[in-house]
Design brief:
The complex is a heterodimer of chains A (285) and B (270). With 285 residues, chain A is an all-alpha fold. Chain A is 78% helix and 0% strand. Classes of the chains: A mainly alpha (285), B mainly alpha (270). Chains A and B meet through helix 2, helix 4, helix 5, helix 6 and helix 7 of A and helix 1, helix 4, helix 5, helix 6 and helix 7 of B.
C-alpha cells in the first residue's frame, strides 16, 4: 500500500510549517482584518458606507487616476527599454559583461534614494530644466513636481530608473533560453532582422515578458515611496492616499477602504492580463 | 552585423548616462558647498569639494546613529530570520512533487499581490495594542512579510537545481536527512543562499511603507531621508542618501556574479 502524501512528505511539510504559519498570521489574517475594517460597521454588520464616502472624495478619484496612469505608463516604458537593453546586451555577448554589472546597480539603490536623486533632477531649478535650457529645447523652467501631468511623467521616469534593470534581467534570462540554431536556420532561409525578431524572438520571449509584466505590474500599482518623496502631497497615488488618511487624518476606515480598492485593482489587472496573454498564446498555438 | 553592434553599443551608452547621471548628481550634492549649488548656473562638474555635510551628519549624535543602528539591526535580524525560516521551507518545497511546489509558489506570489498599505494598517493597529509599535521587533516581524516570499522564491530555485543523486548517495552512506542537508546541501548551495540573504538585507534596508506605519519616535534611515527631503534640507538628504546607498552598492557589487536570472524563476524549470 502506498503511503499517504503527508506521511511520505512528513519531513518536507514540517520544513514548510514555520513559513506557512507566518504567512497565515502576517498576510492572511491582516488581509481579512483590513476587509473587515472597510466593510464592517461598529456593530459588526456589513456596510458600504466607507466605500461610498471614499469615492465621494475628489482626492481619491484623482489618486486612482494617477495610479492607473503611472502603473500603465511606467510599465510600458520599462518593458520597452528593458527589452531594448536585453537585446543590446545579448548582441554584445561577452563584451557586454561589465555593462550588465553596472546596469543592475539600481536594484540595490534604496527606492527612497532613487526618489531623492530625482528631486534634484526634477526640481524647478533642477538639472532636467538646466539641460533642456542648455540644449535650447525650452525657454523657461518647467514646474515638474506641482502635481499635474508633468509630475506623473517625473514619477514614471523615477520608476523607470529603479526598475528597468530588473525587467532587463528577466528578459535577458528569456533571451538566453532561445535556441541559437533557430536564428541560423532563419538566416539560411533568408529571413531579415525584423522577421527574425518578430517570428522567433518575440514569440519565444513572451513567457519572460509575461513574467516581467506581472511581477512589475503588481509593484507599479503599489507605488508609494517614489511618489511620496518626489511630490509630497502634491501628487497622490492610492498608496500614499491610504497612508495619509491613516497618519494625518486618523481615518482608519477610509484608509482601509482605499487600500482594499488598490488590492481589487491589482487583482483585476492580473486577471485581465492572464486573460489577454492566455488568448494570444492560444492563437499562436 | 557591424550595424547591430553599433546600435547595441549606443543604446547601452545612452542608458548608462541615464543611470549614472542621477547618482552622480546626488554624490555631487553631498560634497558641494551650498554657495556652489545655489548659484545661478551651477557647473556640471564638481568644482569645490567639501566634507562639511558629512561631518555635520556624523557629529549629529543620536539623530544619525539611532536610525542607523535601527536600520542595520532590523536588516540583520530580518536576514537571519528570513534564512532560518526560508531555507527549510524552500528545501521542503523543492522536494515536494511539482504540482505541490507550483501551488506553494503561487501562494507566495499571491502574497505579493496584496499591497503593503493594506497589511500595514491592521498590523499597526495590532502592534499598538501589543506594545510592538515603534520597536525593532515589530519592524523585523513586518519586514519579513515582504522578505520571506522573495527569499523562498530564490531558494526554491537553488534547491530545485541541486542534484538529488548527491543526497541519495549521502543517505546510502548512512547520513541522516538533517545531516545530509547540513553537510551536503547547504555548503554546496552557499552562493544561492548568499544571494537570498543579500536580497533579504536589501529589502529590509530599503523598506519604507511598514516603517512609516510602525514607527513614530524611532524612525529608520529611509524615513530619515524622507524627513529631510520634506523639510527641504537638500544637503542632509543627499548625504544620508549617499550613506545608505554605499554599503548596499558595495555588497551587491561583490555578490553580483551570483545574481543570476535563473534564480528568479522559482525552480519552475527544475
Amino acid at each position: 500500500m502506498k503511503a499517504r502524501p503527508w506521511q511520505r512528505y512528513r519531513f518536507e511539510i514540517l520544513c514548510l510549517l514555520p513559513f506557512l504559519l507566518y504567512l497565515i498570521f502576517f498576510t492572511i489574517v491582516p488581509l481579512v482584518q483590513v476587509f473587515r475594517m472597510s466593510f464592517w460597521d461598529g456593530d459588526g454588520g456589513f456596510t458600504l458606507a466607507n466605500m461610498s464616502r471614499l469615492w465621494a472624495q475628489p482626492d481619491f478619484v484623482q489618486a486612482v487616476r494617477n495610479t492607473l496612469i503611472i502603473a500603465i505608463g511606467s510599465l510600458s516604458l520599462e518593458v520597452l527599454f528593458g527589452l531594448l537593453l536585453a537585446l543590446a546586451l545579448s548582441a554584445l555577448g561577452q563584451r557586454g559583461g561589465w555593462l550588465r554589472t553596472v546596469f543592475i546597480l539600481p536594484l540595490a539603490v534604496p527606492t527612497v534614494v532613487a526618489a531623492v536623486m530625482m528631486t534634484y533632477l526634477f526640481a524647478t531649478s533642477g538639472w532636467i530644466n538646466r539641460i533642456l535650457l542648455d540644449l535650447g529645447l525650452i525657454r523657461q523652467n518647467i514646474v515638474w513636481l506641482s502635481g499635474d501631468h508633468y509630475s506623473l511623467f517625473a514619477v514614471m521616469v523615477a520608476d523607470c530608473w529603479k526598475v528597468t534593470p530588473l525587467v532587463m534581467l528577466i528578459l535577458l534570462a528569456g533571451l538566453q533560453g532561445i535556441d541559437q540554431q533557430l536564428y541560423q536556420a532563419a538566416e539560411v532561409d533568408g529571413a531579415n532582422v525584423w522577421q527574425r525578431f518578430s517570428r522567433i524572438t518575440l514569440p519565444l520571449l513572451l513567457p519572460a515578458i509575461t513574467a516581467a509584466v506581472i511581477i512589475r505590474g503588481i509593484d507599479a500599482f503599489r507605488i508609494f515611496d517614489l511618489a511620496l518623496v518626489l511630490t509630497g502631497e502634491n501628487l497622490k497615488v492610492i498608496g500614499t492616499y491610504a497612508f495619509l488618511a491613516y497618519s494625518e487624518y486618523q481615518d482608519i476606515a477610509l484608509s482601509a477602504a482605499s487600500s482594499v480598492v488598490l488590492f481589487g485593482m491589482i487583482f483585476i489587472a492580473i486577471l485581465l492580463h492572464m486573460r489577454l496573454v492566455g488568448r494570444k498564446g492560444f492563437e499562436a498555438a | 552585423m557591424k550595424l547591430r553592434t553599433g546600435i547595441a553599443i549606443s543604446a547601452c551608452v545612452i542608458f548608462l548616462l541615464f543611470l549614472l547621471f542621477p547618482l552622480y548628481i546626488m554624490l555631487k550634492m553631498s560634497v558641494s558647498p551650498p554657495q556652489e549649488v545655489f548659484r545661478e548656473r551651477p557647473s556640471y562638474g564638481i568644482t569645490q569639494l567639501t566634507w562639511q555635510h558629512f561631518s555635520r551628519v556624523f557629529d549629529s549624535g543620536e539623530v544619525f546613529y539611532g536610525p542607523l543602528r535601527r536600520s542595520a539591526g532590523t536588516a540583520f535580524w530580518v536576514t537571519a530570520l528570513a534564512l532560518l525560516i526560508a531555507i527549510p521551507a524552500a528545501y521542503g518545497a523543492a522536494r515536494l512533487p511539482v504540482r505541490a511546489r507550483l501551488a506553494l509558489l503561487f501562494i507566495m506570489f499571491a502574497g505579493r499581490m496584496v499591497p503593503e498599505v493594506s497589511l500595514a494598517l491592521p498590523i499597526a493597529v495590532r502592534f499598538m495594542r501589543m506594545g510592538l509599535f515603534d520597536s525593532m521587533g515589530g519592524l523585523v516581524l513586518a519586514h519579513l512579510i515582504r522578505v520571506l516570499p522573495v527569499s523562498c522564491f530564490i531558494l526554491v530555485s537553488v534547491f530545485s537545481a541541486f542534484p538529488r543523486e548527491l543526497e541519495e548517495q549521502a543517505s546510502i552512506d548512512g547520513c541522516s536527512r538533517v545531516g545530509t542537508i547540513a553537510r551536503i546541501v547547504l555548503p554546496l548551495s552557499l552562493p544561492g543562499i548568499a544571494v537570498a540573504g543579500l536580497f533579504a538585507f536589501l529589502l529590509s534596508w530599503d523598506e519604507f511603507i511598514y516603517a512609516s506605519y510602525l514607527t513614530l519616535a524611532h524612525p529608520t534611515m529611509p524615513l530619515q531621508v524622507y524627513y529631510y527631503v520634506s523639510r527641504g534640507s537638500l544637503f542632509y538628504a543627499a548625504t544620508y542618501a549617499v550613506i545608505i546607498t554605499i554599503p548596499v552598492l558595495v555588497v551587491t557589487f561583490l555578490l553580483q556574479r551570483h545574481i543570476r536570472p535563473e534564480l528568479m524563476a522559482g525552480g519552475l524549470k527544475g
